[in-house]
């Protein structure tokens, strides 16, 4: 069996490089999410919004607002 070098890239741009049997990634990183770059500043991230915490703040707060609004609406309907 041949050994491969793990190509997983950490968030600070270092490469894992551990020896592994799989071509894809080592036993530690094979289930990890792939990091994409922030749409605005280019920092590697693993966010569903496609932006880093600095730039996705307004989207997080908007999602939280609508989630709370929906919960309040359900609570009001249940109490009637």
TrEMBL record:
This is 8639_t:CDS:1. It comes from the Eukaryota.
